[in-house]
């Protein structure tokens, strides 16, 4: 006679999730972006924003930046007067606090990162103009990609 042992509920794979990692099969990538006129002094602009659904966490995988000056001359990575920030729930995301240059140029295959996003988090990519030294930058853009 053959004996079988029932699996505990916690040992059973959940319907709709990956049997290897447990990530829900309905988890999707999001790709949000925006290109706008450069902000005025003292102004901050949200270039890309995404709200994770309630009870879903995520992983930020890429972000990228754009300025019309850098698009015309890839050596122009400095963005004097502009501060770029990634915010999660209105708090700066370490180590992407305030940077004043292009670190992941749009269109060049950004460096992949894997930063876990908390349950129901809101992520924003923001650029702020802190002074008038932006040289010839008239347009800025940002992109965030995650799942």
Number of helices: 1
Instruction: Tell me the CATH topology.
Output: Jelly Rolls
Rg, Cα atoms, Å: 20 Å
Summarize the helix and strand pattern as letters.
EEEHEEEEE
Helix content: under 10%
Structural category: mainly beta
Q: How many β-strand stretches?
A: 8
Largest beta sheet, briefly?
4 strands, antiparallel
The total number of structural domains is 1
Q: Which whole number gives the mean pLDDT?
A: 82
Shape: elongated
Q: Reading side by side through the largest sheet, how are the strands ordered?
A: 1-8-3-6
State the low-pLDDT regions, or none: 1-13
CATH architecture: Sandwich
Q: Which helices and strands, and how do they pair?
A:
Layout: E1 30-37, E2 44-51, E3 58-67, H1 68-72, E4 82-88, E5 91-92, E6 115-117, E7 122-129, E8 139-146
Antiparallel strand pairs: 1-8, 2-7, 3-6, 3-8, 4-5, 4-7
